[in-house]
Amino acid sequence: MEAPPRVAVVDASPCIALARIGQIGLLPAMFDEVAVPRSVFLELVVSERSDEAWSIVNYDRVSIVHAPGLALAAPSGLSPADCDVISFALERRPHSVVIDDRVASRFATRVGLKVVGTIGVIAAARRRGLVDAARPLLGRLVAIGFHVRRELVD
C-alpha cells in the first residue's frame, strides 16, 4: 500500500526565515506538496522582511490555495494568515502545519493538527540528509534575529 503524500501548509514566518538563510528550498524538498494560503502569499509579496520568501511558489509541488473561513472561535492575536493556515489545515488534514507564531501553533495543536516550526524543519532536514548540519543554519537564524531557545540549539 502506498503511503499518503506528505502535505504541509505553511505560514509566512517560516518561509521568511528560511529564505533569509538561503534555505527556502527545504520546504518543497521535505514535503510532496506545500500549500501556501493566498493571504500568506500576499504577506510574503508585500512584506519588507520577506526577501526571497515569495519565490517558494516557483518550486514544483507548491501551490497557492484558497482557505475556507475558520469555523472555530480563534484566540485573540491570531492574524488572518494564521487563521487561513489553520482553517485550510483543518479542512485538508495535512501531514504538518509549518508555523512559528506561539499563539497560532498552540491553537493548531489544540485542534488536533501536527505543528512544526522553522527549527523543526531544519532538524528534520538534517535527519533526512537534506542538509549536512543543523547547527550552522541555526546560527544563521540567530544572526538574522530569529529567536531560538538555547536548549534547542544544544
Strand numbers in spatial order across the main sheet: 3-2-1-4-5
Q: How far apart, in Å, are the first and last alpha carbons? A: 39 Å
Q: Give the low-pLDDT segments.
A: none
Q: Mind telling me the C-alpha Rg?
A: 15 Å
Could you give the count of β-strands?
5
| Helix and strand run | EHHEHEHEHEHHH
Q: What integer is the average pLDDT?
A: 89
Overall 3D shape: globular
Number of helices: 8
Percent of residues in β-strands: 5-15%
Share of residues in helices:
40-55%
Class from helix and strand fractions: alpha/beta
Largest sheet: 5 strands, parallel
What does this structure look like?
This protein is of the alpha/beta class and 154 residues long. 44% of the residues lie in helices and 12% in strands. The chain has eight helices and five strands. It has a five-stranded parallel β-sheet. It is globular, with a radius of gyration of 15 Å. The termini are far apart.
